[in-house]
Amino acid sequence: MAGPVAASPLRVHAGLGQNPVVDWLRVIWPDAALQGEAEMAGDQVVAVDELNRRPSSCPFLFVWDGHQFAFVADFGGVGGLGYLVAPGQYARPDSTEYLRIPKIQPIDGQYILNAMTPLEEITYFDEAKLIAVDHPQGTQVHPNEMMAIQAPPPEFKIFCVQQTINPRKAVDHLKHDVTDQILRADRRYAGATAPDPRFIGYAKPHFVQLDFGDQLSKLDDKMQLVLFLEGWVEYGYSSTNFAASQAQLSLKAPSIDVWRDGRWVELFHEVGYPAGLNHTMTLDLSGKVLPRDHKIRVSSNMELYCDRMYIGACDPTPPIHIKEVAAVHADLHFRGYPREYSPDGRQPNLYDYGNMDRSVSWKLMSGHYIRFGDVLPLVETTDDCFVIMGHGEELTLRFNVVDFGPIPQGYERTFVLKADSYCKDMDLYTATPDTVAPLPFHEMSGYPYGPEEHYPDTAKTRVYRKTYNTRIIRGR
């Protein structure tokens, strides 16, 4: 049947011959989501509904915390390739991210970090360093990080919090008191209250309003004031943004306003947001917020969930010591797919490194991946020679404890992962979602890039591709 008003039949009739069951049914839905159904009895009409599941995210980081390899966070979301923001418009990727690691313990004299790609995507990992930040006891340190939207990518900086200024009261857009939700990082959230059922990642406009009273007026005017937003965001997909555009909707990253002289004054317009699960967004308010300001409002229409929000009074020239250390071991191998769980029945789900599935029904991008084994030379520096890893694969990084040196007296140590990476999913509207190529590179104008731009062809990249880029996978 064909023609402008014709359609394929909604019921698919499949002959099984002498077989009483369908051993395995593989469905690719119109939005390119892959789904598998097993052991379906024959001689009947079976309704197959598309499952609502997360097909892609970013690489996950697990570290040894003294008891287990614990889930820290996802990372690399700022380096998403080919992410469709609106028809014909793609987000510009930022490959560099600094991820604070709250708990890490050595095993046999080494810190071990496991970076995994567990969902339907690939990761291009270029450089990995572990940074030790020694800071005075009683202070906190955080890297300058967020998914920047209407702001330039954040420059590397370590904020050293001398004093935490918690809001005396917080209310949301429904006039609900949410003070208790945002005073502690306890997986009780303020923010989005009405997710849009049509478009994942979208919600009705919402805000969290923080009232600091007169606390800012009592601070030393030489202190740097930084807004900290700990929480998570439910990412929309390229196809979500395309569909939302047809409904005349677009995502609005958080904007920051202050109540001043009887009205709300915008300080930052759609500035950015915490880039994934278990992330902290930092925003320097110095020169923007005045000592006499009391109220700050964070508003958005994203599925943004705020766990803890406060202002940190930071020393602009902190007495900290930073040491960046390279890995002594890097190995790429297949690991599997960590199962999701919730420790308290709340979202977001976390991931259990000790409970792995060995197979999952994800599609595969076609192309040249990195062969398994030693890949240490590929993560030593940013040089466009990537560890290209597919789903279910893991990059294990080891760092010698002795390379970080002793902790000075009166100091404590916090670790930060420096990761330079890109990732790409297989969403129907993501640019080149079915192939590893075209490879990204740091000097590209964007992704996808035009025919006048090319991945670097140098003596180094030719040796890299011949030596490492040898594992060919056919998509399916």
Describe the secondary-structure layout.
Layout: E1 21-28, E2 34-41, E3 60-64, E4 69-74, E5 84-86, E6 89-90, E7 96-101, E8 110-117, E9 121-136, E10 140-143, E11 147-148, E12 158-165, E13 169-172, H1 179-183, E14 190-191, E15 202-211, E16 224-233, H2 238-246, E17 255-260, E18 263-268, E19 272-273, E20 279-284, E21 295-302, E22 304-314, E23 321-326, E24 329-334, E25 337-341, E26 350-357, E27 367-369, E28 373-374, E29 387-389, E30 393-400, E31 411-425, H3 459-467, E32 471-473
Antiparallel strand pairs: 1-2, 3-4, 3-8, 5-6, 7-31, 8-30, 9-23, 9-29, 9-31, 10-12, 11-19, 12-22, 13-15, 14-22, 15-21, 16-20, 16-22, 17-18, 17-21, 24-28, 24-30, 25-26, 27-32
Number of strands: 32
How many H/I helical runs?
Answer: 3
Strand proportion = 35-45%
Please tell me the overall pLDDT: 93
Strand order of the largest sheet: 4-3-8-30-24-28
Give the overall silhouette. globular
Low-confidence stretches: none
Described by strand count, sense and barrel closure, the largest sheet is: 6 strands, antiparallel
Q: Give the helix level as a range of percent.
A: under 10%
Helix/strand-derived category reads mainly beta
Question: What distance separates the N and C termini?
Answer: 28 Å
Cα radius of gyration in angstroms: 24 Å
Written overview of the protein:
The protein is built from three helices and 32 strands. It is mainly β. It has a domain at 21-53. It has a six-stranded antiparallel sheet with strand order 4-3-8-30-24-28, with no helix packed on it. Strands 10, 12, 14, 16, 20 and 22 form a six-stranded antiparallel sheet that branches. Strands 7, 9, 23, 29 and 31 form a five-stranded antiparallel sheet that branches. It starts with 20 loop residues before the first strand and ends with a strand. The mean pLDDT is 93.
